[in-house]
Amino acid sequence: MAKRGLATFACLLLLGLAALFGAGEYLSSPARRAIGAAPPGFPASSVAIASAAGPVQGWMARGTPGAGVVLLLHGVRGNRLQMLGRARFLTGLGYGVLLIDQQAHGESAGKRIGFGVREADGVRAALAYLKREQPGERSGVIGMSLGAAALVLSRPGREIDALVIEAMYPTIEEAIENRLRLHLGSAGGALAPLLLWQLPLRLDLTLEQLRPIDAAGALACPTLVVGGEFDKHTSELETRRIYAAVPEPKQLWIVPGAAHTDFHGFATREYETRIGNFMALHLRGFVPSKQ
């Protein structure tokens, strides 16, 4: 009986380890999808931007000359379609907009999802593209989750004039532990090291490189940090730590009632008011008198 129990335990342990290994493979595996041309009613052209990992695919919608341009960066395992609502909102205000599929997402090249480090190369390439294609335009960026991490880890310096960080993880350790606790309860925290040790092997990166909060202090533009009140992937406390790390001038918006979600879809009117005012102030030098 004891031997049978031991054998059962060993089998369960092996199954658990296999599941964690499979989770590590899934988390970093590409999330590719055919996207194609921009949808009807959204006046954008398809673009391919050269980067170190291969072409970055996206859509470019040109705006009113002198109105400014905004780069939109989607979340993990998403693609440019995730940012289409924001793009429609911004083009309606006259901004030029560039939406890209980040490395190993959508139609863009890349062997692995890099949790912001690898994707940072594509962000740099996209910003350089905007400088070439829209010379003289002031530029902003809206990054959602992975997109925010990629932007911060790209260390853009004074290349951008305004930044919106949405639901960005502070460190990969916290990101993994939060997600395991969410799905496995208190046992998830104990299992986090078994998932974390895989990342350097799969990505040829160190855990120290996967700490966007450490790079936040190097930002050199006005920044709006956004988080969800009930986000269990990136907690409100973690969002406030990121806000504390960001230099002035900065703003903080904790979205009431929101989890780890699309804040534009969740609180559309408030989102468009806040982000619209923020971009207008820093890309155009004024806040609209009418909302």
Automatic annotation (TrEMBL):
Instruction: Give the UniProt keywords, A-Z.
Output: Hydrolase
Q: Does the keyword Hydrolase apply?
A: yes
* Keyword flag Hydrolase: yes
Q: Which GO terms describe its molecular function?
A: hydrolase activity
Stored Pfam families: Hydrolase_4
Q: Which InterPro entries match?
A: AB_hydrolase_fold, DNA-binding_regulatory, Hydrolase_4
Serine aminopeptidase S33 domain sequence ranges: 68-167
List the PANTHER family: ALPHA/BETA-HYDROLASE, ALPHA_BETA HYDROLASE FOLD-1 DOMAIN-CONTAINING PROTEIN
- What is the protein name stated in its UniProt record? Alpha/beta hydrolase
Q: Which organism is it from?
A: Massilia atriviolacea
